[in-house]
## 1
Amino acid sequence: MSTLIPMFTSSEGEKEVLCAHQAIMDKWATPYKGVTIPTSFGETHVIASGPEDAPPVVLLHALLASAMSWYRNVDALSQSYRVYAVDVIGEGNKSRPIKPITSLDDFLHWFTEVIDGLGIDTLYLAGNSYGGFTGAYYAMKLPERIRKLVLIVPAATISPMRPFYTHMFIPKAIYGFFPKVPGVKRVMQNSVDWMHKGLPRDPLWEPLFYNSMVYGGLINQVFPRMYSKEEFAQIKAKVLLILGDKEAIYNDLYSAIQSARELIPNVKVEIISAAHHITAVANPEKVNQKLLEFFAE
């Protein structure tokens, strides 16, 4: 039997994260079922909502944002769809890894095992940030299974993102190596503040994200990159790109939009007002509207 890899810096930290997780589940707006899918990389935790016979929608979260980052979207989506919010394995969440993912093809293998384990044939796929980066790859390699693709401020993918590395990834990496250095938690709080760009905080999800940033581990070894026009040409699904107007991870937001239009054939672009990087948390009503319209087209 393979040994589970600890995904939190301490047992106390894990309790903090799981307590914040449960606070959201207590407010989950629609009936749900927690599902555990065995894969080659460990056990993957999935939250399933909506009619079991409805068309499936799979949601992939941003780095360390967890499946909980979709809690304000599942109610609207699950009226018409079977919604699966996935805890991406290899991060500090409720999935339990036994080995790291070291390549995009590893991610593809894991994702295929997850959707096969859920009994899904074809699906609508939406991914935020890192979930958008990997989601684009799944759509390239599984064109017969991904019916429509939504990229919500995908990490790199369409544009360089030096500000993300400066303000979030590097501080997180430093904390991972030196968790007991005085003042490091304040640095992590500064990273979260930078991402929000002064917008209001979600009272349930924010404690979970902060605690995940502080106490959550990261073992996967795949850095986001831009894809080429030839790679995007492999995608057969219609593509919707959603960007918050306060998005800050890219070198320049409007250059990213232009790049997306050059790289992705017939991409549809939507700018969401009053929204930061975790766009579906910042302005869920508008994101829900855009997702439902796109899936229904």
## 2
Amino acid sequence: MKAVVVGTGYWGPNLIRNLLSSDEIESVLACDPDTERLAKMRKMFHGIETVSDYNDAIGRADIDIVAIATPVSTHYEIAKAAMNAGKHCFIEKPMTSSSAEAEELIELAAKKNVTLFVDHTFIYTGAVRKMKEIVTSGRLGKIYYFDSVRVNLGLFQHDVNVIWDLAPHDLSIMDYLLDEKPVSVSAIGSCHVGNDLEDIAYLTLEFSNNLIAHFHVNWLAPMKIRKTLIGGTKSMIIYDDTEASEKVKIYDKGIDVTTREGVYQTLVQYRTGDMISPKLDQEEALAVGTRHFLDCVINNKTPITNGQAGLNVVRVLEASALSVKDRGRLIEL
């Protein structure tokens, strides 16, 4: 198969590298309106073929796959054109700027019988895949909460706020790990640089079964923090992506709640046991995700991070934008 990667800024070269290293891919085109970027791609990837207009690449009969690594506002337009031309689509997250656009792309992929893959890269890390095993096994018991912090100093985006920039990572992880779906979202945030784009924000998601999820995203933190806590009735997980090793730790800690018969008093006892850090697959997440995408294309399978997974994240982002502008108003999903 032949592929085109549209957008050769920060992430595009990583996509080109992984596609070129795949046995299923014969060649890759690099597409970008910036001629300097294209010159860099030709140098980096030994004379790779380049094109400045994505329509020229999409219109070619020998192109099977379109990988989109452009600003989120352009995803819908490019993906729609690609799938109408019968091409399989690999879209960077967030999938689209609105849930309506995401829903339309899902319907179009089904109509054209093409694969739609959303690159929620963290789903393909060894750490998140291990956490999925743990949650699915029932080791945590009933989940009480999902708490995430993703902060750093910069990089300020010119087209989206900090929620749209950072939260998709953790929202996609939550969506993958938990069977339940949130029923409402509220968010607060503030802008400190005068561009009307929030650089600090807090999101709270509520579920129908008393589960609660909280996300803190921030471009103005003095250090990089990437930490997630998942608490259940039996045990708890701490996932720290900044750790060189032992990114995932399972704590046999929790509470036992009992009520004495005839006594209006709830007794809470604390339980403390061992901590273990399981061995994790160290393979590059993008390589795992790319291989999964190509397998889905060839064998007509549904990707783990399909259009519905992308839509689930966009719905929360969209609702959070409404909530932030209305000072934290609860938005039903």
